[in-house]
Specification:
The chain is an alpha/beta fold. The protein is 29% helix and 27% strand. The chain has three domains: 136 residues, Rossmann fold (3-Layer(aba) Sandwich), CATH 3.40.50; 190 residues, 3-Layer(aba) Sandwich (Rossmann fold); 93 residues, ANL, C-terminal domain (GMP Synthetase, Chain A, domain 3, 2-Layer Sandwich), CATH 3.30.300. The N and C termini lie far apart (57 Å). InterPro entries: AMP-bd_C, AMP-bd_C_sf, AMP-binding, AMP-binding_CS, AMP-dep_synth/lig_dom, ANL_N_sf. This is Class I adenylate-forming enzyme family protein.
């Protein structure tokens, strides 16, 4: 039996009245949470949801998503969380591709479920304190049962379903607990969306498994964020670089961060200068990490208590191997640049229904990330860029991240993104897009001069465009695809 599926019931047996899950004004203790999971599992059983089926949930961040996940696992089913900002067509694609047997959600999801002929559960019933029957037997999920079907962002082609079994998620959550020494004294403030691995595994599951509790935050706002921290007293939260940049730029008062042991940054590279500024200003260690959904969230993270190297994404997490390899797959020594590969029990089972793509990405047990990195002599990984994002200008290789880091060094820059643009003579040239910090004005000429002072001439952008804001996905990650100009016909 999977130890993950038993978490609510182990907690309820050990400390029935202990805090478990907070969502707005609602607080569920361990006993109430365990009962809610059993009640929803019974509902799934009555609807014919069987072991091996997939349960979908279409909701903004809320405690019901967590309850749905554990209820699905109780039945031996997998959970596929759906991004609520997707269009109906995009939602239908995920529901059909994952062969969802039931959809949990609101009125919108009822109409979608009806149109597809699948069962529907009203979100209002998930935590309803009624007398509906519970499933009293033990959960049935096994280690090799699928636990999560997480869909990639689909920047190229249709989104792919990443298949993670209980063994993957078990290994990942155990690794995070060990690395961060999580305990019952910890409280996670959930900032990131629950349709991604980061929110589900790092933000929720690891804290609950360690005996701590979880606070589900409302939609992020810099105007109210520190109020949440001061009210709920979390010991950690995980966010993306954009959130940290906005907090740094928009916070105008003193914030009480004394409850925080550390904060985590992932999903995209964070400028070293911003890390240092945030740590100094708010007095909390900011540890940057790196990982993919295909690796169940995280593979490297900087230590909380040990040496943190700004500009790196830290060392390999317990139970994982991280290496850098040449184009032919041969390992490279420290200091050499190559593709980052990952091996461990956290590596996905594969892409749903895509065996050829799975075989291209997972070879001989190693997950090939498509990221370019360098591992130093101490084992710290620095991500250079995406292989596919590399710009070749007149035969010279340019990594956009290097230019972006230079731009972030300008005091007026809030966000920066560099992409390649076709050029009739040079093949490609770098073009930079920048958003200024609130209250600051900066010109393209000023930014070009700033780059020219620090970068080789061939790395200086051919053009800089200053915009009010840069395009982002629902997690807050910059979307470069929307900045790239189409190739000339």
């Amino acid at each position: 039996m999977s130890p993950l599926a038993r978490i609510p019931f182990v907690r309820a047996a050990q400390d029935p009245t202990g805090s478990c899950l907070r969502d707005g004004e609602r607080v569920l203790d361990n006993a109430a949470f365990a009962d809610a999971v059993r009640r929803l599992a019974r509902r799934f059983e009555d609807l014919g949801v069987a072991p091996g089926d997939t349960v979908a949930v279409l909701l903004p961040n809320c405690g019901e998503i967590v309850t749905t996940m554990f209820a699905a696992w109780f039945r031996g089913s997998a959970l596929t969380p759906v991004n609520p900002v997707l269009t109906d067509d995009e939602v239908r694609y995920q529901l059909e591709d994952s062969a969802a047997a039931v959809l949990v959600g609101d009125e919108r999801s009822r109409d979608l479920a009806t149109a597809l002929g699948i069962a529907w559960v009203d979100v209002a019933d998930v935590h309803a304190c009624d007398e509906s029957p519970l499933l009293e037997r033990d959960p049935v999920a096994a280690a090799d049962d699928f636990a999560l079907v997480i869909y990639t962002s689909g920047t190229t082609g249709k989104p792919k379903g990443v298949l993670l079994d209980h063994a993957n998620v078990d290994a990942m959550s155990a690794s995070l607990i060990e690395h961060f020494t999580l305990s019952p004294a910890d409280t996670s403030l959930l900032v990131l969306p629950l349709f991604h691995c980061n929110g589900l595994v790092a933000g929720v599951l690891s804290a609950l498994r360690a005996g701590g509790d979880v606070v589900v935050a409302p939609r992020f706002s810099p105007d109210t964020f520190w109020d949440l921290v001061e009210t709920h007293r979390p010991t950690y939260f995980s966010a993306v670089p954009t959130i940290y940049a906005v907090l740094d730029a928009r916070t105008e008062r003193e914030a009480d961060t004394s409850s925080l042991r550390f904060v985590i940054c992932g999903a995209a590279p964070m400028p070293a200068e911003l890390i240092a500024r945030f740590e100094e200003r708010f007095g909390v260690p900011l540890v940057e990490g790196y990982g993919l959904s295909e690796g169940t969230v995280a593979s490297t993270i900087n230590p909380v208590a040990g040496v943190r190297k700004a500009g790196t994404v830290g060392i390999a997490l317990p139970g994982q191997e991280v290496a850098v390899v040449a184009a032919d797959g041969s390992p490279l020594p420290s200091g050499r640049r190559g593709e980052v590969v990952i091996r461990g029990a956290n590596v996905m089972r594969g892409y749903l229904g895509r065996p050829e793509e799975t075989a291209r990405v997972v070879r001989d047990g190693w997950l090939h990330t498509g990221d370019v990195g360098i591992i130093d002599e101490d084992g710290y990984l620095r991500i250079v860029d995406r292989i596919k994002d590399m710009i070749i200008r007149g035969g010279e290789n340019i990594y956009p991240k290097e230019i972006e880091e230079c731009l972030y060094g300008h005091p007026a820059v809030l966000e920066a993104a560099v992409v390649g643009r076709p050029d009739a003579v040079l093949g490609e040239v770098p073009v930079a897009y920048v958003a200024a910090r609130p209250g600051r004005v900066v010109t393209p000429e000023e930014l070009l001069a700033h780059c020219a002072a620090s970068l080789a001439r061939y790395k200086v952008p051919a053009e800089v465009e200053v915009r009010a804001e840069l395009p982002k996905n629902s997690v807050g990650k910059l979307v470069k695809g929307l900045l790239r100009e189409p190739s000339p016909v």
